[in-house]
Amino acid sequence: MKEQKSDEVSRRAFLRGAAGVALFATSGCEKVEDWLGMGPEEGPVEPPSGEGLDLISHVVNRVTFGSTPSEYARVKAMAETQREAVATYLEEQLAPEEIEDKRAHRAVRRLEAIHAPLGEMYEYKEAFLLEQLTRATLIRATRSKRQLFEIMAHFWSDHFNIDISKKECRWLKAADDREVIRKHAMGNFSDLVRASALSPAMLWYLDGRENRKRDEDEKPNENYGRELLELHTLGVGGGYTQQDVMEVARCLTGWTVRGKDRFFKGKVEFDAKAHDDGAKLVLGHEIVAGGGAKDLEEVLEIVCGHPATARHVARKLCLRFIADEPSEESVDEVAKAFSASGGDIGTILRAVFATGEFLDGARGQKLKRPFEFIVSALRGTRAEVSSEMDLVDYLVRMGHAPFQYPTPDGYPDVASPWTGTLLWRWHFAIALSRNEVSKKIKVDEAQLIEKAGGIAGLASCLLGRVPSDQEKAAMARSGEPLALLLASPGFQWR
Amino acid sequence: MAMKGTGIISGNGDEQRTLVVVFLRGGADGLTLVPPVGNREYYKVRPTLSVPENEILKLGEANCGLNPAFSGLHQIYRDGGLTVVQAVGSNDDTRSHFYAQDLMEHGGQIAGGWLGRFLRYREGSPPSALSAIALGKAMPEVLRGAPAATVMESMDTFTLGSGSGSTAVLQKELGALYGLEETILGPAARDTLEALGRVEKLRRDDLPPMNGADYGDDAFSRGLRQTARLVRAKVGLEAVSLDLDGWDSHFAQATLIKPLMTRLSDGLSAFHRDLGGLMENVTVVVMTEFGRRVAENSSFGTDHGRGGTMFVMGGSERGNVLGEVPELETGILVGPGDVPVVTDYREVLKPILLRHGAGKSMAEIFPEA
C-alpha cells in the first residue's frame, strides 16, 4: 500500500483527530465498526434451492456486484412469487435515494481528498487521490446497498472513460467521478453528456482544452468531437461523417480549462476569441453563425436526440445486463424507451429489465470482469476489508484497475478479452479463503458454512444454485471448499 | 475427468516472441556510453570525462564507438546482434526526470504505457496470465493499461499458493471442474494449468544457465536470468520490463556510472549467451529518458540534456549504428548545449513492435507519432 506524503499528512491527521472526537460523541448508540462502515452486515441466510439459477439469483447476479449470503432471502421475502419479488426488488434498486446506505456512506466519507472542492484537489499528491478514489470505488461496490446505482456508475465510467494517468486528469478525475458520473448515473442521459462535455478532466483527457480557432490558420482539435460521436452518443456506424466530426469540433472551439500553473486551476471557461463563430452544419442541422458558447448546447441537443444514440446506448446496456450478443429485438425495445423518455436512465433500465431476453433468456452467461469477480467474492464471503488497497495488486495483474483504462472506449464488457485472467482469479480465491490476501482482509469460512447450514448451503449461496454432483465431489476432495468454489467456473459467471 | 495437458499453450503460447524493455533511469550519458570517434570538440568540452580515443571500441566505420566497459556488447555487435542508436530521444524539453520518463513510457502525452497498449491492441488471441511481467517492486508506467501484467521479483510469484500450504489438490480439482466447462473458460483453464505446470517444473529443476552464460548477482542480472528461464519455459511471456537505475550523474560521473555500464553489458551478454538461438524470438530494447549536457560541469559530472542512446539486441538486429553523433559545435546543439534529438524513440520502437505482432494497432500504440 502506498502512503501519502508530506503535504497531506497534517490535513489528514487533523481530520482523523476530528473523526475521533465525533466517534466518542456517537459511541453510545452505535458500534464502532458500524460507525466506520466496517464489518459484515447480518441477515437471515437462505441458500437458493434451484438446480439452475432461478429468477431471483439471476436478477441479483445481473444488477449487483454479486449476492451476499442474505440477499437471496431478502429478495424472496419481498413477495409471494419470484416474478413479483424481483419486480419489487428492481423498483427498490431503481430508486437509490430511497435506500438507506449509512454504512457505505460513512466509510467513504472518511476519504477526504475525493470530497475536496475542485481547485483543492491539486493540493493532494496524484497517487494519493488515485488511492482514495480507488478505495471509495471498492468500498461502494462491496458495501453499498444501492447496488444497481453502483453498477451504473461503473457502466458510465467505462462509457465516458477517462484514464487518470493522462496529464491533469491525475487530479481532476476524482471530480469527474463525483460531479459527472455519480451525479447523473441514474438521471438523464443528456445531462450526463453535458456534464461530461464540460468536465475539467474530460477537457484534459480528450484534448478539448486545446480545441481552438483563434485565426484563419488554426485547426480545431477533433479528438473530443470524434469520441463524442463515436463513443459517447451515436456510436460507430451511427451515420455521421468526417465532416460532422469537424463541424462538431468547430462548435466546441473555445471551451477550455485552466491548468495547474494558473489561478482558479481546474476552472472550465469559454474563450470567445478562440471560438469559431461561423455557421456550421451538424448531422444535417444548421447552426447559425454567432452562437458562441451556445453552439455547445445545440450540438448536444442534436447528438443526444439522434436515434442512433438511443440505439448505441441501448445496445451497450443490453450488453451489460443481458448478453454479449443481445438480440436486435431487445435493443429495439430499449432504444424505444430511450427515445420516448428523452433519455431518462431509470426508464431505459426498466425497459432492459422488461425484455423477455433479460427475464427468460440465458442465465449465468455473462463473465464477471476481474473487478466484479473480486467484489463478488468479498460480498459472497462477507469479508471484512479494512485495507482496500491490498486488492489493487490483483486488479492490476488482471488489467482491471479502476480509472486506468488507456483509451477512450473503456474496459470491454464482453468475455473474450478477460479469459487470460484465470490464474489470478484462482490465486485470489485461494488467498482470500486462507486469509492470506493481507492481514486486513478477513473471511471466516467456518462461520459462513455454519450460517449456510453446511458446505452445500454455502455453495448454493455463492453459486446462486444447488451445486452439481461434480462440484460437490470436488469440494469434498479439495479439503478447501471455499477456495475451490470461488475459483470454480461456476463462480466466474453472472 | 481431469484435464490432460496437451503440452501446447494455444494462441500466444509456444511461438510467442518476447520483448524485453530495459530502462536506464536517471538519464544515461550517451557521450560516455557511445563516445564519438575523432571528434576534437568532445575532448575540449569533456576534459575529465571523455573516453580516450584508443580505448573506444570501434563500430565499423561509424563516427562513434562503444565505451570500453561494453566489451560484452561489442562482441554481440560484431556477431551481428546489436544495433546502436545515437541522438535519439523524445520531444520532452523539460529535462525533468519525471516528465521525460513519463512521456517516454506513455509514448506521448497520452494515457497508459505504450507496452501496455501494445499488449491490449496487438493482433492475435488475448494475452495470457503470464504475458507481461515487470521485474521489480512496482508497475512501471510503460506497462500501465496492459490487459495482464504482474510485478514480481522472482518467478516464485507464479504459483497458486499465496503462503501456507500446498495447492496441488486444489489445482487437480480445478482441472477436473474446468475440464467440464464448455465455454471459452475451458481452453483458458487448460492453458493456465499448462503454464503453471511449466513454471513449477522450472522451479523444481532449477537448471543452470545454458551455453556457459555467467550472470552476476546484482538485481539486474538476476532479473535477466529469470526472464531467460521464463522464455525457455514457453509460458507465453510477451513483454518484460526491468530497470537499471542510477544514471543521474551530476557529480563524479566516471566513478558513478562505470559499474553500471559493466553491469548492463555483462548482464545483457550473459542473457544473450544463455538464450543462444532463442534470441531470434527475443528483442531487448535499452532506453533512457534523455542524454546529458555535452559539456561537463564543475563537479566532474554532467547535467540533464536531450538526445541520448538506445540499444536494440536480438530479434532481427543485424549489427547497425543508426544516427550519428552530431558535431558538438554550438550551432548544432540545442538548449543550454545538448545533443539534439535527431531520431524519435518511437521510430526505433515501431519496427520492433511490428515484428512482435502489433499488426494494425500502431495507431493505438502511438497515436501521436
Descriptive notes:
The complex is a heterodimer of chains A (494) and B (369). Chain A has 494 residues and is mainly α. Among the domains of chain A are: 206-291, no CATH class; 307-360. Chain A has helices at 7-26, 32-36, 55-63, 71-76, 82-94, 102-109, 126-143, 147-159, 169-184, 189-197, 200-205, 223-232, 242-252, 294-304, 307-321, 328-341, 345-354, 356-360, 370-380, 389-397, 422-433, 445-451, 455-463, 469-478, 481-487, 489-492; strands at 255-257, 268-270, 280-282, 285-287, 384-385, 441-442. In chain A, the strands form three sheets. In chain A, strands 1-2 form a two-stranded antiparallel ribbon. In chain A, strand 3 and strand 4 form a beta hairpin. In chain A, helix 3 (55-63) runs parallel beside helix 5 and helix 23 runs parallel beside helix 25 (481-487). Chain A is globular. Mean pLDDT of chain A is 92; it is low at 1-30. Chain B has 369 residues and is α/β, with parallel strands linked by helices. Chain B has one domain (18-158, 212-274, 281-365): Alkaline Phosphatase, subunit A. Chain B is 33% helix and 14% strand. Chain B contains eleven helices and eleven strands. In chain B, helix 3 (71-78) packs across helix 9 (253-275), helix 6 (168-179) runs antiparallel to helix 7 (185-205) and helix 8 runs parallel beside helix 9. Mean pLDDT of chain B is 89; it is low at 1-13. Chains A and B meet through helix 20, helix 21, helix 24, helix 25 and helix 26 of A and helix 5, helix 6 and helix 7 of B.
**Roughly how many Å is the radius of gyration of chain B?**
22 Å
For the largest interface, the chains and their residue counts are: A-B, 51 and 52 residues
- Which residues of chain A form runs of ≥5 with pLDDT under 50? 1-30
Helix-and-strand structural type of chain B: alpha/beta
User: Biggest sheet of chain B: strands, sense, closure?
Assistant: 9 strands, mixed
Q: Total helix count of chain B?
A: 11
Unreliable stretches of chain B, pLDDT < 50, 5 or more residues? 1-13
**What separation lies between the terminal Cα atoms of chain A?**
30 Å
Number of strands of chain B: 11
For the largest beta sheet of chain A, what order do the strands appear in spatially? 1-2
The rounded Rg of chain A comes to 24 Å
Q: Could you report the average pLDDT of chain A, rounded to the nearest whole number?
A: 92
How would you describe the shape of chain A?
Answer: globular
Helix content of chain A: 40-55%
β content of chain A, as a range?
under 5%
Classify the secondary structure makeup of chain A into a structural class.
mainly alpha
Number of helical runs of chain A?
Answer: 26
Task: Kindly report how far apart the N and C termini of chain B lie.
Answer: 52 Å
CATH architecture of chain B: 3-Layer(aba) Sandwich
Please give the domain count of chain B.
1
Write the CATH fold name of chain B.
Alkaline Phosphatase, subunit A
